[in-house]
Design a protein that fits this description.
Number of domains: 2
Low-confidence stretches: 1-23, 173-183
Helix content: 55-70%
Structural class: mainly alpha
Order of helices and strands: HHHHHHHHHHHH
Strand content: under 5%
Oligomer: single chain
Largest sheet: none
Distance between the termini: 36 Å
């Protein structure tokens, strides 16, 4: 679990609100907490407190792409739009990821191909079946016996896992299911996708070894999630989130 979701951050936010005399239990906070049945987006809800009833401002200010994708999905933002936003944040990580040796370069090309096809799927130009075939080809490459002699860098492995989760999102409402979360497959897929992508990006920032610079790695994780939030906002606006929530009867009309 990363710093953005830590108990210490929640307590810090609470102290700010109480000590600063800011209003508690704002409309935006209650809205997010009602949607958060698993209780994993508490820092997002507490941070939104200061915006009272301004959902668009809460969306614009938060710095964790996982929370934004989750909220967009909860309120019913266009499904393909959410997937394309997730694809875009993976593209940024792939561009930053160094590839060593022919096998890693092949893996990078295959991941790029999957992302291109997801973009086409979002435009209605590619079928889900073709995406899943490309995902299978990526899996087979990851299982290539040559990898035992020329193992992938850890960052490449994390990024490949993130791409697998993305193709799970594409696969309509049947993303990869985990034994510990059978009732929240879509939310869990978003969580795993962002987590794997953040680890891939962060490892690149610390030279590929989190144990060498643990503090730098933790800072890089937080920075990655902020970068992902910025990417998500380029594809999904706060106004779109608010409009979708209103259509679902989850948010009052403007």
């Amino acid at each position: 679990m990363v710093e953005s979701k830590s108990t210490s951050r929640c307590l810090s936010l609470a102290n700010d609100y109480v000590g600063g005399g800011l209003p508690m239990w704002s409309e935006v906070r209650l809205f997010i907490e009602r949607l958060d049945v698993r209780g994993v987006h508490i820092p997002f809800a507490w941070s939104a407190e200061r915006f009272e009833n301004d959902l668009e401002q809460a969306w614009a200010a938060w710095g964790d792409g996982e929370d934004l994708l989750w909220l967009a999905a909860c309120v019913g933002v266009d499904y393909q739009q959410i997937v394309v936003a997730a694809k875009a944040l993976l593209e940024g990580v792939l561009r930053q990821t160094k590839r060593h040796g022919p096998l890693e370069r092949r893996l990078g090309r295959q991941m790029a191909q999957v992302l291109e096809q997801v973009q086409a799927w979002g435009q209605g130009k590619q079928s889900t079946e073709r995406i899943m075939q490309a995902s299978l080809e990526l899996y087979e490459l990851c299982e290539d016996p040559a990898k035992d002699y020329y193992p992938f860098a850890e960052a490449m492995d994390h990024l490949a896992q993130a791409v697998f989760w993305l193709t799970g999102l594409v696969d309509a409402w049947s993303p990869p299911r985990l034994p510990d979360a059978p009732d929240e497959p879509f939310e869990r897929a978003i969580e795993c996708l962002v987590d794997q992508a953040a680890q891939a990006w962060s490892l690149q920032q610390v030279g590929g070894d989190e144990e060498v610079a643990p503090e730098g790695y933790r800072r890089a994780l937080a920075s990655a999630r902020q970068r992902f939030a910025d990417v998500v906002r380029q594809h999904i606006t706060g106004a779109q989130v608010q409009e979708a929530a209103h259509k679902q009867g989850l948010w009052p009309p403007p």
